[in-house]
Amino acid sequence: MDEWMKRCVQKVQEGDTDAFSEIVNAFKDRVYQISYRMLGNSQEAQDIAQEAFLRAYTNLSSYDPNRKFSTWLFRITTNLSIDKLRKRKPNYSLDAEVEGTEGLDGYSQLAAQDVLPDEQVVMLEWQASIQKEISALPPKYRAAIILKYMEDLSLQEMSEILNLPVATVKTHVHRGREALRKRLKKW
Amino acid sequence: MECFVSVNDIRRYFDGEMKQEERDQFYLHLPDCIKCQEHFEEVKKTIALTQSASHIEAPPAFTSKVMDNLPHKKPRRRWKTWIHNHPLIVAALVCFIFSSIVFWLIWIGSDEVTISGEGNVEVIRETNTVLVPEGEMIEGDLVVRNGNVDVQGEVHGDLTVIHGEMSTTGQVTGDVEEINQMLAWIWYEIKTLTKDTWSSS
Fold first, then answer.
1. Beta bridge partners of residue B156, listed in sequence order
2. Could you say which residues from 48 to 87 on chain A have a Cβ atom under 8 Å away from some Cβ of chain B?
3. Does residue B31 lie in a domain region?
4. Do residues B172 and B186 share a domain?
């Protein structure tokens, strides 16, 4: 994987744009997952995920090939997501109607899965409820929980992505987990 | 049984920081302590729920959307790269072109006849000629620009004519030089400049 990745990056740097589509294909789900879980809204998540890949493309020369590409890419994604959250109007919530889409709230924008319709509904509600709880966390704890339990990353990688010391990352995971625990008690 | 487990201990359990003995003790303690049991189960549930929600796929056509939005990389022009790599040569070239233009402007710029040197000379406007009359003696160098020179008397020094012709029936004791080529003139200017600088310092 790493060797293949390195070759892909090199090809793009040499001007082979098509090689970049292989990189996008390899990482789009994970990048989208981070942005979606951070923002809780598929439209914004899609914009941010796309922006993350565009930034990666234009700044490819600043990527150090001796480090993991995914770490670098996820760092761009989390930074963009956190910026987006900061710029948002306060009190933004999934229950709020999305501008210009009357009657359509955040839940209906969730990514559809390829399952039977009945199960799909249950699945969507399930996903939406968990997402709602995650969205209630402060962004820094949210990022820690997403990277740790959804992306399954090591503390070391998380520390590089979030640009925080490992000890701080650990604290953020713990606090996020505790906050979630209290909210999920009733489940 | 008294509870010896703190929130931090439970955190350490889930972060995999407990040693084997500690973990054994913790497991032994759990069935006896409802508070810890609850907390432990809740954290386990939290983690399981969070992990279970982690199967999201990017929307369809995501890749093609990204690819369509990529900026078209303009191939960097070769000369641009070259300039970037050879700053000294570029600086020298710019300097050379600039001074060439200055020299050229001075060269073609004035048609005025100028004479430097001491002594009585006549200037004949019609033929644009500087005449050193018979019997006249010039002490030192004589330099004439943009005009012809006719030496019938004597020049005790070098005679230089720039942009003009000379005819000598008289006597010139030093070097005689006629400069009609731009490069020769530039060379002459440089020589004089260095000579002046040396003698003045």
1. B139
2. 49-50, 53-54, 57-58
3. yes
4. yes
Burial bucket for residue B102 (CB in 10 Å: 0-12, 13-18, 19+): exposed
Three-state DSSP class for residue B106: helix
ipTM above 0.90, yes or no: no
Task: For chain B, say whether A126 makes contact (Cβ under 8 Å).
Answer: yes
Please report, in tens digits, the pLDDT of each residue of chain B (201 residues total): 578 888 888 999 998 899 999 999 999 999 989 999 999 999 999 999 888 876 788 998 999 999 998 887 555 666 777 777 788 888 999 999 998 888 888 777 666 777 777 777 888 877 778 888 888 888 888 888 788 888 888 888 888 888 788 887 878 888 888 887 777 777 888 888 888 888 766
Supply the range of the domain harboring residue A41: 1-92
CATH number for the domain harbouring residue A84:
1.10.1740.10
Q: B65: which chain A residues are within 8 Å (Cβ-Cβ)? A: 50
**How many structural domains are present in chain B?**
3
Residue A54 lies in a domain: yes
Q: How far apart are CA A34 and CA A12, in angstroms?
A: 24
Q: Are A34 and A77 in contact (CB under 8 A)?
A: yes
Q: List, in sequence order, the alpha helices (H) in chain A.
A: 2-13, 18-39, 42-58, 69-87, 117-135, 139-145, 155-162, 166-184
